[in-house]
Write a structure and sequence with these properties.
Blueprint lengths: L2 H7 L4 H9 L9 H4 L11 E3 L3 E4 L8 E5 L4 E6 L4 E6 L2 E6 L3 E3 L15 E3 L3 E4 L8 E5 L4 E8 L2 E6 L2 E6 L3 E3 L15 E3 L3 E4 L8 E5 L4 E8 L2 E6 L2 E6 L3 E3 L18 E3 L2 E3 L16 H16 L5 E4 L4 H15 L1 H7 L13 E5 L15 H9 L5 E3 L6 H4 L7 E4 L2 H10 L3 H5 L5
Antiparallel strand pairs: 1-4, 1-7, 2-3, 4-5, 5-6, 8-11, 8-14, 9-10, 11-12, 12-13, 15-18, 15-21, 16-17, 18-19, 19-20, 22-23, 24-25, 25-27, 26-27
Helix pairs in contact: 5-6
The structure holds zinc ion.
Zinc ion binds next to strand 25.
Length: about 425
């Protein structure tokens, strides 16, 4: 009998215990009172009876019952390594079935930590008292029974199953997948580092540095821990001091040079040029140009007289409105595509208050290349210059303007300018020899 084995007896399953107690003869003629035993609290007690328990004269059921140890009775282990232990109860020495006694814990059990299940049984598997098949079976873990891994002993795992701790052959266990974060979604970057910044293993400067995020490095915010943010940088997750992070704005910083606030756009002769090269500051906020609006109204009225119904679908747009519009297009179509038909904030002619988008009766052709083939589109192509409007983004000139053909977009430049430039068949960029992008 090893000390180890005695310990394992203490963890025998409840199921076995119930069965054990039921087979202990209960109609016993003996009692403690009849024997007049004084329950001396032996300081040497090593075990306690799990239920009423017969103390016999020998190590078998055939041996005579000396007395019945009541449930909770303390006994002292003397010897024995099989299923029968020689013990001392009070002053009486005899034999008890080892299944019916529990070792008295001398060491205070550690704070019972809630061990979460780590594995499950692939099939019915024995939980044993030690790391080999020679060790006794404590109980059988049913198929799919969950256990908590404690430690390893070769191919045997020490595990906890319910309240029992024992050994199982690792071949019969399958690891429970840690609830995997569903389809790993690409977390968009939310912040950037204002300067070189340490990514740490925890939310304090005492924690180890995982790596250094370079200035302007983009991170994705995960959660907050005081002034520390848990973030993802590339494939690494860690903590950074939030003071060194700046939120990435909704707007992508323009790759174009920031326009000066006192020189809005570029003037060529008396024409304000706004294109992918020349931009307006966010403060340039003129609203619809009155002269242009008057010309527009005249054009729409004249067209109406010729049974051509023109609708003004878009006119003045502020820098910030364009900012929202452009970002929405980028979200929907991607940057490359959006740049072909939508201007970045500051780069839209609509911010000048001099540009108008027009459509016809059929809305299906609004903002579509097909508008060029409608009655209204054709009328505009032939007549807009007479009212001072220039077809700004012409067919086949994408390389010059940076925009796809927009048969609906007209820019007011005055009747004289519009007429001579239309006659040239050129874009504003070509006519004045200025860069378009
Ligand atoms: Zn337009």
């Amino acid at each position: 009998m090893t000390k180890n084995k005695m310990t394992t007896k203490a963890v025998i399953s409840t199921a076995v215990l119930t069965l054990a107690i039921s087979i202990v003869p209960t109609g016993n003629a003996f009692s403690n009172i009849e024997f007049g035993l004084i329950q001396a609290e032996a300081s040497t007690a090593t075990h306690v009876a799990k239920g009423n328990l017969n103390l016999r004269s020998g190590g078998s059921l055939k041996d005579k019952i000396i007395l019945q140890i009541p449930k909770g009775g303390k006994i002292e282990y003397i010897s024995g390594s099989g299923i029968w232990y020689k013990v001392k109860y009070g002053t009486t020495t005899g034999y008890v079935h080892s299944d019916y006694i529990t070792k008295i814990e001398t060491v205070a059990p550690e704070t019972p930590k809630e061990t979460s299940a780590t594995h499950f049984a692939k099939s019915n598997v024995n939980l044993r008292t030690g790391a080999s098949t020679k060790h006794e079976i404590m109980l059988q873990i049913p198929k799919n029974g969950k256990v908590s891994y404690i430690s390893k002993s070769g191919i045997w795992y020490k595990v906890k199953y319910g309240t029992n701790t024992g050994y199982v052959h690792s071949d019969y266990l399958t690891k429970i997948e840690t609830v995997a974060p569903e389809t790993p979604k690409e977390i968009p970057a939310t912040h950037f580092a204002k300067s070189n910044l340490n990514l740490r293993t925890g939310a304090s400067t005492k924690h180890e540095i995982v790596l250094q995020i370079p200035k302007n490095g983009k991170v994705s915010y995960i959660s907050k821990s005081g002034i520390w943010y848990k973030v993802k940088y590339g494939t690494k997750t860690g903590y950074v001091h939030s003071g060194y992070l700046a939120k990435i704005g909704a707007a992508e910083p323009s790759k174009y040079p920031a326009p000066s606030t006192d020189t809005p756009g570029k003037y060529v002769e008396d024409i304000l040029i706004v294109n992918k090269k020349y931009a307006l500051p966010s403060t340039y906020n003129p609203g619809i140009n009155a002269t242009a609006k008057k010309a527009l109204d005249a054009m729409i009225a004249d067209a109406k007289k010729q049974s051509v119904t023109l609708k003004n679908t878009s006119s003045y747009r502020s820098y910030w409105y364009q900012n929202t519009l452009y970002n929405n297009y980028v979200k929907k179509h991607g940057k490359a595509k959006a740049d072909r038909f939508s201007a970045r904030p500051g780069h839209s002619e609509h911010q000048t208050g001099l540009a108008f988008d027009l459509g016809g009766v059929n809305q299906a052709h609004w903002f579509e290349e097909s508008f060029a083939n409608t009655k209204e589109g054709k009328w505009l192509a032939s007549n807009a210059h007479k009212y001072g409007f220039h077809l700004r983004y012409q067919k086949g000139k994408e390389d010059i303007t940076g925009y796809m053909f927009e048969p609906w977009h007209f820019r007011y430049i005055g009747e004289a300018n519009a007429t001579k430039i239309k006659a040239s068949g050129k874009t504003l960029e070509e006519y004045f020899d200025i860069p378009g992008k």
